[in-house]
Amino acid sequence: MAELYFSKPECWAPGLEDNDSLWQQWSAGKIQIQNSCDVPKLEFTTPVFRRRLSQISKMTIQVVHALTEKIECKNLKQVFVSTRGEINRELQINSQLINDKEILPAAFSLSVFNAPVALATLACKLTAGYSVMFPSRENFYDALCCACSPVLCGDEKEIIFIYADECVPQEYSSVLKKEFLPFSFACVISSEKKDGWKKAELPDFSNSTFEEFLKYLLT
Predict the structure, then answer these.
(1) Radius of gyration of the chain from Cα atoms?
(2) Within 13 Å of residue 86, how many CA atoms lie on the same side as its CB?
(3) DSSP notation for 27-84
(4) Among 54, 94, 113, 178, whose CB has the most other CB atoms within 10 angstroms?
(5) How, if at all, do strands 198-200 and 4-6 pair?
(6) Residues 206, 207, 210, CA angle at the centre, nearest 5°?
């Protein structure tokens, strides 16, 4: 299996925000992500642009912006992964469909699975294109393998890997088997060795979760 190299991730979560020190404490198991609907301020965007954005979209935009500000990667393709997507908007649309027998076009356009990364490309002026993946049953390893496939086969030297999931609505609490915490991160995956980047082979993460992978990148 070919070696891959991962840049330092840019992260955002309620309670930790984008504070590097707090993320290091989280990776060491000293503090936890808050299960809240807090969002990044996105002061680099206009009020009109960010006014109606969801938590997952705002977190995705924040980490992509932070990554592209620190690494020259705006010309790279992006791969966006989420296990729940725009779950709050989907609940709102389902409720509206049941109660009003209709769906508003504007609400639907912001609820689709690719909305967060599409909005990030607009906010950060990325034009290389993106792919989105929904890993069944939170299968992180398959998601990572799919994301890395263009790099492994040589079609791309590097890609931007983005993960995000938002706070789950209270309405689903009775069917949840565990607590799902909101957080997002983005990093560059490369086939070329780079100083300060983490080296790994994909089988190293065959039994990992998104949280464990992020902790590996942070430590």
Answers:
(1) 17
(2) 24
(3) HTTSS----S------TTS-HHHHTT--HHHHHHHHHHHHHHHHSS-TTS-EEEE-SS
(4) 54
(5) antiparallel
(6) 95
